[in-house]
Predict the structure.
Amino acid sequence: MRHVIALDVGGTGMKAALIGPDGELLHQARRATGRERGPDAVVEGILGFAAELSAYGAEHLDEPASAAGVAVPGIVDADQGIASYAANLGWRDVPLRDLLAERLGIPVALGHDVRTGGLAEGRIGAGQGTDRFLFIPLGTGIAGAIGIAGRVEAGAHGFAGEIGHIVVRPGGAPCPCGQAGCLERYASAAAVSEAWAAACGDPDADAADCAKAVTSGDPNAVRVWQEAVDALADGLVTALTLLDPRIVIIGGGLAEAGETLFTPLREAVRKRVTFQKLPQIVPAALGDTAGCLGAGLLAWDLLATTDSTEVTP
């Protein structure tokens, strides 16, 4: 059966799959990234993992993979196939696309993890059928993917969608990016965990604990949660003003709180908009498989481009 290899490389783990023409998951596997072994070992681990997937497909699906797609964190030059910088992995200017293509002997597409996840959510997830969307995962940090007519906009330099570094509280908490008051310092899962741990006096408390306390009516939890929701709403209204999306898809760890997050967030955004059109604000549909599915879509897109080029006179 015709299929592609998909890899989603994270700071701690790698998700992989063999994906059929209609997006069906034919085989899935996971493995530790092994960043403690150093950046070169991580690269070799990715190459080896991909080779194992290739061998599995050839044996169990009766033909080799047609292409591969890989999603990685950090700064990515997708056009050149280079993982330019990834602090968590210790990478600088890794020609990952060419290394994988040489190892596998097939075409390879390289993408940024959040934009790749957004591609999947937009095409086959919560944004399916929508011409304009904004995908925002709320995790350790906050990133974003701008969806336009079935593709995700990378920007001139690969930084499009970085909503987490919109300043929502001028002069506020310093951010590792060099600014102060960035959205992700107030509304990420990590920020909520930090604020709730300080408020309740338990250093091990996290954002999930805060959400539970909100549902039980704890006033300190309600205060911490509302501060995060207000900051997120401020950032979203800036994004709505600039991008005018039809739908906003919220994913990541904080979105697991469900309506504890979405009900007050929708209300906070509604109160802030004036001339802007209010978009739908919905939870992501694909969970932690979005990056892997998106990598598979990159591979199929690459094949479609290649096939089209081959038949063009």
User: Anything to note?
Assistant: The domain at 4-116+288-311 is CATH 3.30.420.40 (Nucleotidyltransferase; domain 5). The chain has nine helices and 13 strands. Residues 13 and 33 are 5 Å apart (CA to CA). The chain has a mean pLDDT of 93.
